[in-house]
UniProtKB/TrEMBL annotation:
It is found in: Cell inner membrane. Required for the export of heme to the periplasm for the biogenesis of c-type cytochromes. It is a single-pass membrane protein. This is Heme exporter protein D. The lineage of its organism: Bacteria, Pseudomonadati, Pseudomonadota, Alphaproteobacteria, Hyphomicrobiales. The keyword Membrane applies. The chain crosses the membrane at residues 6-29.
Length: 52
């Protein structure tokens, strides 16, 4: 491999790593949001069951 290709290779790996990290962050944030929403719904559902 010649030296002229190293820049392209590093750029490709960098873009791939950045994409994977962004997707991982989005998944973790979505999981946190959905967990909080589920906890809120379970709390309100529990209150509703007591009144029935």
């Amino acid at each position: 491999m010649t030296d002229e290709h190293w820049g392209y290779i590093l750029l490709a790996y960098g873009v791939t790593a950045a994409t994977v990290l962004v997707l991982l962050a989005r998944i973790l944030l979505e999981n946190r949001r959905l967990s909080a929403e589920l906890a809120r719904l379970e709390k309100t559902a529990g209150a509703r069951e007591e009144t029935l």
